[in-house]
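User: Fold this; tokens only.

Assistant: Input:
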Amino acid sequence: QVQLVESGGGLAQPGGSLRLSCAASGSIRSPNTMGWFRQVSGKQRELVATITSDSSTTYADSVKGRFTISRDNAKNTVYLQMNRLNPEDTAVYYCRATLRYAPIVYWGQGTQVTVSA
């Protein structure tokens, strides 16, 4: 059973940075896609960024140029470097893993990111 555990959330000032990590407790079959999503209370969960096994990336328009997703396959870990944070980035951030050839989706428990002066 694979578990995803996020860390690195917290409080940041506008213009500041945070780095989120998502570690998988077990090996996730390849090829796969790892991603970060976020959700504000009362709103739908939205995609932030994804990265495939061969490191192809996608980003939401709202975070392009500010956030960077990366992964370390040897450590089964995906990262989200968030720079130039603004209050609109405040949300619970979730890690997700999906397999290309199987209908399996793994979610982490979420980590709170708050951007406030």
